[in-house]
Amino acid sequence: MPDAVVDVPRWSADQVLSLAPDASAQRAARALAGGKAWSEVGFSADDALPPTVWGLCQGSDVQPYQTCVDLTEPAYRCTCPSRKFPCKHTLAVLLRWAAGTVPDAPAPAWVREWQASRAERTRAYGPKEAARTGGESNGRAAGTKATLRRAERVAAGLAELDRWLADQLRGGLAGVARLGYAHWDTMAARLIDAQAPGAARLVRNLGDYVGDPERLLAELGLLRLLAAGFARLDSLPPELAATLRLRVGLPVSAEEVLAGPAVRDRWQVLGVRDEPENDLLVRRVWLRGAQTGRAALVLSFAGPGQVFVTDLVPGTALDADLCFYPENVRVLIARRHAPAAPITSVAGALPVPAAMREYAQALARDPWLERWPMVLADVVPVKAGDRWCLTAGGDGVPLDPAAGAPWRLVAAAGGRPVVVAGEWTAAGLRPLSVWTGDRLVRL
Hints:
The chain has helices at residues 13-17, 23-33, 88-98, 109-133, 137-171, 173-177, 181-193, 197-205, 213-231, 238-248, 254-258, 352-365, 407-413; strands at 38-46, 49-57, 65-70, 75-78, 262-277, 280-289, 295-302, 316-324, 331-336, 341-342, 372-384, 387-392, 395-398, 418-425, 428-436, 439-442. It is α+β, with helices and mostly antiparallel strands. The chain has four domains: 13-130, no CATH class; 137-248; 261-342; 352-442. A hairpin with a 2-residue loop joins strand 14 and strand 15. Helix 5 (137-171) packs antiparallel against helix 7 (181-193) and helix 7 (181-193) packs antiparallel against helix 8 (197-205). The longest helix is centred in the middle third of the chain and has 35 residues, at 137-171. The chain starts with 12 loop residues before the first helix and ends with a strand.
């Protein structure tokens, strides 16, 4: 008899394919899912085994590839030599499960061994961290001295930044606008030397605004606020001081974040955006709590040739504990209480005025906030002059021109009011997903 199984919400094919690293992996997975290469597939879960989809797929090797997926995160394993993650075999077995063609079956030994090794690594992590963080007093003393030295260097670098900002304004914005990127990069390099990478990034970005004097002046003002705030850090409220340190670039370890209070909710995955930054690809996954209404950002990075380990699928909700970084937006997932489940609508969609008030409150807490998730209720995409907007009655928000013409959004809406989730930036909203009826469309 098969082991007793638990009820796991089944994903849609779109949610499975959203995990694919590229379009070719999607095509290969579709072809493989309906083929005869699978000699055995099953879904297993019991008291000792998390919900797991597994299968044996015959490939180019003599032995079939062993493929399994822990649905609680999800986590993947496949013995194929592919460098894509997840590979086509992983996606294919998930597509079969999404289609309802994977039967409940006892897990073979190799699946249980993989899950046991994962559980062992999880158990082993705690003692190692405890031993490391509770190590010799000499190590702690050395760390304290290094922290003090860095704080002194950062303070000196921001004092130089303050003088440099005064020089820029003294010469007038018209003169600054004629300067090339090298001018901003020089000051940014000094801040890197002063170990203030967050401030350096803000200075480097100034070169993008030389054609917009109003935006350039606003960004110079925010940098002045950063430098002045750091000079009087000890007198600031604790939450604002912690946010300022983070914006300057002083690191906060994952251990410190996870030691803080956790917020449990059904976290709805609103959308995903990938963006290049220097030599890295940055992935932002935006979440919103169904009960708390809190916004959350899961941030990850991939270097050249790397792929993201995607475990948050737009159009699903995750019952989990999240721990927030000091600026109260970025999070780490502390604990998952259940596998992610598909949703047919998003809770907490707001009218345009309420969404803008929420953003204003977030900006008051963190003046250096660059992006904010919005979920707008009953809006229609329209073109006003040369700009696209989302309107609802007499209210509306502009779309970011850098995102291009929103033809996919226009087609999905079909002239009807829809719920749109996106990133709000200084240039406007960047749509990430739209709900039409009970269907999510990624943009």
